Structure formats: C-alpha cells, structure tokens
C-alpha cells in the first residue's frame, strides 16, 4: 500500500492534479489498484455542474491513468521519467461519479515496448463499473 506522499515519489503530479489518494495493491510493471475519495471540496465541482456536481470524465480518465503510471514508473530504472498520453481507445463512461463516491481504479499493463506503453484501466464505485478504457503512453526522461 502506498500513501499520497509515497505516490508523489513515483509520479510528478501535485495538487490540484494528483487524483489518486492511495495505492491499495501494486505489482510493478503489471498491475495497480488505487482509490480516489471524491469530496464536494474538489475545485472542479464549482463549475461542473452548479447544483448537480459530477466529476468530469476527463479527470476520471486522468485518475485511472495515474494509477497505471504508478505501476509503470515504480521500478527504480523508470523513476523520474514522465508518462505522456499519446492516445486512448475503447473509452466508455457507464455512470456519473459524484461527491461522496470512493472510486477504485484497476490498471493493468498490457505491454511496454521501448519507450511506449499500453494499459487497460477500469474505475468502480461500490463495485459498479463507472468507466473503462485503454491508454497509450510515451515514456520520457524529465
């Protein structure tokens, strides 16, 4: 298990863009499971949407990708690298994420070849699938 502070030693994201609160399971270069506790205090709820707060889908995808990034960048030889999005495929949103939800994200590395990587990630609230997709990354040094 990794805390938010330990996650920041692996990926470069910081407030307000660190969207993973904890890593529950980690098998480096294979799989990671993380959580995001969604609260009404999130800045994006001020405008998305007033009176009907819904976590923006793009931020949910980013949170899922960050969990995959922890799995990819955890090994010492990858520490300090950046993982840039280069594409997404098969993305689906199944249900809105709202304040009070705890999102559990599962990211599995499909392959890494040279400086490119691909992960499959899913997000769940109360064991119900809320989003899924395939993410393509380019790895580069900072």
UniProtKB/TrEMBL annotation:
Give the catalysed reaction(s), semicolon-separated: a (3R)-hydroxyacyl-[ACP] = a (2E)-enoyl-[ACP] + H2O
Enzyme Commission numbers on file: 4.2.1.59
Q: Where in the cell is it found?
A: Cytoplasm
Q: Which GO terms describe its biological process?
A: fatty acid biosynthetic process; lipid A biosynthetic process
Biological function:
Involved in unsaturated fatty acids biosynthesis. Catalyzes the dehydration of short chain beta-hydroxyacyl-ACPs and long chain saturated and unsaturated beta-hydroxyacyl-ACPs.
CDD domains reported in the protein's UniProt record: FabZ
The identity of this protein, by name, is 3-hydroxyacyl-[acyl-carrier-protein] dehydratase FabZ
Q: Name one GO molecular function term.
A: (3R)-hydroxyacyl-[acyl-carrier-protein] dehydratase activity
What does the sequence similarity comment in the record state about its family? Belongs to the thioester dehydratase family. FabZ subfamily.
InterPro entries registered for this protein in UniProt: FabA_FabZ, FabZ, HotDog_dom_sf
Q: Which Gene3D superfamilies match?
A: Hotdog Thioesterase (3.10.129.10)
| Entry keyword Lipid biosynthesis | yes
Could you confirm whether the keyword Transmembrane helix appears in this record? no
Alphabetic keyword roster: Cytoplasm, Lipid A biosynthesis, Lipid biosynthesis, Lipid metabolism, Lyase
Q: Name one GO cellular component term.
A: membrane
Q: Where is the active site?
A: 48
